[in-house]
Amino acid sequence: MAVRNHGCAAYAASVTTSDYATYIAGLPRVLAAAATLLRDGRGRVLLVEPNYREGWALPGG
Q1: Confidence (pTM)
Q2: Under 8 Å CB-to-CB from 12, ≥6 apart: which residues?
Q3: How many CA atoms lie within 13 A of 31 on its CB side?
């Protein structure tokens, strides 16, 4: 299924739930994440303590 942006709300309304589910199921499954290293003027590194796992980590997502 090719989904094209026609800039029209009527087109979006014509896409059925099953068409959309088929489209989403056909997308590539890529797991991606990023983090950043932030340091202040004294060389200290910013770490965060995530609430979804134990320990400290670099900020990111």
Answers
A1: 0.48
A2: none
A3: 0
